[in-house]
Amino acid sequence: MPEKSSETVPRDHRFTSIDAVREIARRRLPRMVFDFADGGAETERTMRRNEEAFGNLQLMPRPLSGGAERDLSVTLLGTRLSMPLIIGPTGFAGLFWPQGELAAARAAHAAGTAYVMSHASTITIERLARDAAGPNWFQNFIYRDRGLTRSFAERALASGYDAMVITIDNQVPGFRERDVRNGFVVPPRITVRNAVDLILHPGWGLRMLRTPNLTFANYASAEHASIMALSAYMASNLNPDVSWDDIDAARRTWPGKLLVKGILHPLDAVEAIERGADGIIVSNHGGRQLDGAPATIEVLPAIVEAVAGRVPVLLDGGVRRGADVVRARALGAAACLIGRPQLWGLAAGGEYGVRQVLEILREEMDRVLALCGIRSVADIDASCLRREGNPGSDPASGTV
Description:
Oligomer: single chain
Structural class: alpha/beta
CATH architecture: Alpha-Beta Barrel
Number of strands: 12
Largest sheet: 8 strands, parallel
CATH topology: TIM Barrel
């Protein structure tokens, strides 16, 4: 695919950081909807650790080594991207903005990067490919009904998606206590408990009223026409009886680039490559599945070492600053994915809000490179890091 150019977007003074975008989203969304995106599994320790662990890695500036301009571009799986940052798959994005997946994909492509469509999107595989041309990947699950897994892959292939992402850490639903406390269901229902909260957020309510057929569009059929029936059908199709044979089957079905998402153990990364994976995504599902799993940035170095350059390794989880992307690159990640930040951007302003999120992170990456004396993303390595509380660490060895 030819190099994807990026368009600059004027910076909005309200969108000073990803935290600021999150706060705008919190004010504009009913609590149960905000918490649906914002929350994690059980005690949310893994979710918090994803963010906190980046702070243990200090950046070491060498100010006399830099250049007047910095090159943030990367080539990933044969596609040139404007920066090492991709919008990751997040289910039901249309709950945050009408046709949210389409808005986020257009924002990603305008910024010169790729978009990963969730299986649980509110628009179809075909619609996104038609109306948001650009680097698009499709996220697939290994369902109890393997025919459903195969049919999604076939639809994405026919629609021209550039890669397929198999997510493997969803054998059973994670237990998300915020959703239980809020009485959150799909679609959201008005109850005595949440009526006032919904009334206090009329902008979101009016947008949803103007959104026809808010549903899991890729699953809709005559058999499962209502969203409640679809939700039950999707939950019933999650399957703990998965194995590496399913990756073999996905490889046979999908002739294009194949990535495996949900890898936290080096041995699993090696196995995935042996089964034909073209890329590894280090991910704990944003802390929404197994509470107590390690932060992704903590396990990244061991996985990069095990992969030994055979395929690109990407990182998902806890990226809130451009500096986090630089840290991940320094430890060997080819690129990072963002999930919650793009949902906050959608809630804050649709496509415009997601463009602001991407521009925030782009500017922060560029500023970090300038202040650290690094001329391009390709020049980032472990020598620019120092582990907090360990002055004797050797960053250049990769064992910070």
